[in-house]
């Protein structure tokens, strides 16, 4: 048993959760800032800010699709690495690292080609108007060119955490984001590149992140060794990566579908500015939700290892502690949104009409924020113990099965407000269902332990 395995097996769960979660939270916050900083700078471009941020809003479904594929590879690989280490299968874990690198490059290159070739049709479908098409296309074409860096950076950063080096993963993300912020300011306002400057800044910063993460393995300082022969794709490894990664992938693809439907509803009931408002709302929500996703990632290797080692009490304790922390974070977020939304909304654009629509929207959109951790962390728990089908169902429940009908139905009776209320209504129902599934899962552990004790007593 190596140091990482010994730590996951024996250290107190609370200490482990902090050790893994804090760097992951930093990493996720930094990852969010890639998009948030872009939108802040873009929204404040003189004269064209409101329309430019609307153009970015139109591209949100594409950005979410890129994140979906990054999660498919990265989270799928990391979960399997944790489970393999819990089972003592180090060589299998190292094979996953090599396959992750190759898979990231292939997936990224494929997305670049598809996105650029069919760009105009995709953007029109996603809600671009004649006024916002120019800004949407100028931004997303450059982002798509860097898709390989995007996928590789996320995937390897995730595996580095699973490799037992969460601090290094966080440091890589901080440097990447800092690069993005500096380049945003320089390219947009000094070199007057506008929205294209924001996209170039993002691609360069993601390239820095990807190259540094790759060098972590290539320099031979990683806990899991990089071997060239493991770069050759193995069908069985790809299958296991996709099986686990399918749940977060489905959640993000579902989110992209919702964004498309939402953009078209926003366009119909509120016009271009409503789409710009949603882009701002999603950015603010990202700031509050990313710590929760960081807690998710911090808990994942603990849960995965504990479950693989049949330490169900530790797996459950990791979930309960992460749930408590996540609830506190989102409760603070909810209070900020309800009591002083103008403070955060003004950062993205000072236009009074756009601010009015956004403030009205975010107060309704964020109503269920304090209970959302049950749904998100619950789905992650089921995913982390290797139950891909159940995790996928929970993810789709919140983002598609409930949310899409709400977006289609509520605006018919409530107009633009119906789009804002669709998410909290869906969240409330999803939380109840997720809680019931978790209770059933936890009860099954007692039955397994009782059976094991019975067999041991009579052997």
Automatic annotation (TrEMBL):
It is a multi-pass membrane protein. One of its GO terms (molecular function) is antiporter activity. The chain crosses the membrane at residues 20-37, 49-75, 96-118, 138-156, 168-191, 197-219, 240-261, 273-297, 318-345, 365-382, 394-414, 420-439. GO terms for biological process: response to antibiotic. It comes from the Bacteria. The keyword Zinc-finger does not apply. It is found in: Cell membrane. Pfam families: MatE (PF01554). The keyword Cell membrane applies. Keywords: Antibiotic resistance, Cell membrane, Membrane, Transmembrane, Transmembrane helix, Transport. One of its GO terms (cellular component) is plasma membrane. InterPro entries: MATE_fam, MATE_MepA-like, MATE_MepA_subfamily, MdtK-like. NCBIfam families: matE (TIGR00797). Belongs to the multi antimicrobial extrusion (MATE) (TC 2.A.66.1) family. MepA subfamily. This is Multidrug export protein MepA.
